[in-house]
Structures are given as structure tokens and as C-alpha cells.
Write a structure and sequence with these properties.
alpha+beta; 5-stranded antiparallel beta sheet; 2 helices; globular
Length: 89
């Protein structure tokens, strides 16, 4: 992701934020639109620790992405296919 895309990032349900230390956060809800609230519910996972539900501040995620401390892993729609080779189906 480039910086412009990171600054526009809006968490979606099912997104996984992977941190450089191996821990990760799974987003449990979409970012509320138009309510002015920038906190979302997520489940934090770390090695050897029971997963815990947390509220995370969206600008913090964006800042950590810009700094290279974490990365986004987003699921694609089930109907999306990569047909880069037009000779095969």
C-alpha cells in the first residue's frame, strides 16, 4: 500500500492487521460511517496469550502502517478470480 491508500484505510470486518512481532489483530466490525467514532472492536492475538477483545483507534493503525510496524491482510470476495493468463480457464 502506498501512503495515500494507508491514509484512506477504513477497517472492514474480517481484516487482519499483522504486526512485525508475529501478533495480529482481527477486526470484528466495520468502521461506523458518519458517527465521528474512530474506534473499532477487534480481537488481539499473540503467541502464548489468550485472544482478547479490544477497542482500537483507527488513526493508530494508519500511523503504525506508515511506520512499517504492521501490515494489512484483507480477504477478497469469493467470486474474484485471477485470470492473468487468457489462454487457460
Amino acid at each position: 500500500m502506498d501512503i495515500k491508500a494507508i491514509l484512506r484505510y477504513e477497517p472492514k470486518k474480517g481484516d487482519v492487521i499483522i504486526y512485525n512481532d508475529g501478533s495480529y489483530t482481527e477486526v470484528l466490525e466495520d468502521l461506523p460511517v458518519g458517527k465521528g467514532n474512530t474506534f473499532i472492536k477487534a480481537r488481539f492475538h499473540a503467541l502464548g496469550v489468550e485472544p482478547s477483545e479490544i477497542n482500537i483507534h483507527t488513526p493508530l493503525i494508519r500511523t503504525q502502517m506508515i511506520q512499517g510496524k504492521c501490515h494489512l491482510c484483507r480477504k477478497e470476495d469469493k467470486n474474484v478470480q485471477d485470470n492473468t493468463d487468457s489462454t487457460t480457464e
